[in-house]
Give the backbone structure.
Amino acid sequence: MATRKLWIYSPDISPRLEYTAGVIFSTILGINYEITSDRRKIGSSPAVNYTGEKVKDQFVVRPCGLLGATGIDSTRPEVSYVEDMPVLFAAEGGSIPFDLFSAVFYMLSRYEEYLPYSPDAHGRFPGAASLAHRGGFLRMPVVEIWSRYLALELVKHYPVLTIRHNEYSVLATVDVDQPFAYRSRGFLRSMGGLVKGLAGVGAKPADRLRTMTGEMADPYDSFGYIEEKLNAGGCDAIFFFPTGDQGEYDHNPPFRDHEYGLIIRKYDSMFGSGLHSSYRSAGRLKTLKMEAERFTAITGHHADKVRQHWLLLNMPDTYREFGEAGFRNDYTMGFHDEPGFRAGIARPFPFYDLMKETITSLTVVPFQVMDVTLRQYMHLQPAAALEVVSSLITATRRVGGLFVSIWHNTSLNEGNGWEGWRHVFEEMLDMQKP
């Protein structure tokens, strides 16, 4: 039997409503739908009436006005609860007690990140300042939960509707900020490090010399270990490599470095890779394009995947620049200081440019947890970190989402304070299995 179409009636059809309906019904629920402003098309078919008008014996969601508006105002919704489910934009008189469409749009568009906020030292929007963190639901994929809640209520009203079952999946990502501690850093930088070591500052001179002469493996070379564990766990993975020039926050080798090129090509072929755009490239489109060209020169293919170094995500500028530079998939959506669901969703979704009121072709692939967040921002020990990771895996599995983690080769070397974190990585690979 063919799946019945769901009509969505709204007197005014805005780009915001089209975007939100697309994510809810196509991306998450798999429901065939059509939006209309003509009541006559609906007849006796299943329908959602997104209107403030009086409607009898039909499924109604009362709008709060956000999806019919344009531009950005100071909207900061209150958090309330439907049983134990946090909701935004409470509304009376509908079939459900809140404007679910506006709540979804607010989270996905990152509306609050267009409003004035206090950035950290690097200009980033802190997770601790987010509505989701303050409201206690950052570790819940609320967009997924709200969508499933809507689906269940709709099926009660229209049993002919069918909802797609989404399969849970996983993706491990590796940011290669600095592939080598000593190798491929240039003669002057290596000698400078050696002098500091002799003066009692930085790395041990003997280790540096032994590494530079090939007698000892470079401390940051954990690639063989990572490769082994990913293959043993059957885990999909993407490696992100920087190709920018060196600077205060950019410590990668020169993009022409032979050994670095071998690593990039190896893991690009084995797992897939993307550009780790530099700290310096943030807000500099010309620099970003140059780094993308370098990536293409190394790998032999266009860079369509990107993650911004230091997670320097500035809405909407970063995503506009990614689009202009030819990227199709971004992997930056997540907080540097808090684990969880920054956009409230556990699967890829299209970026909506709130200032242009446009659905773009850039796909955002959010991540839930990063090693640096757990150790350096939350100051967790490995056992406590595993509890956080486990809870996020469980939350993602429940909604049939994509669990994405970020690791660094430098954090999996069992040194510099990262002792015990290989165990966290290995346990995560085991517990995340579908």
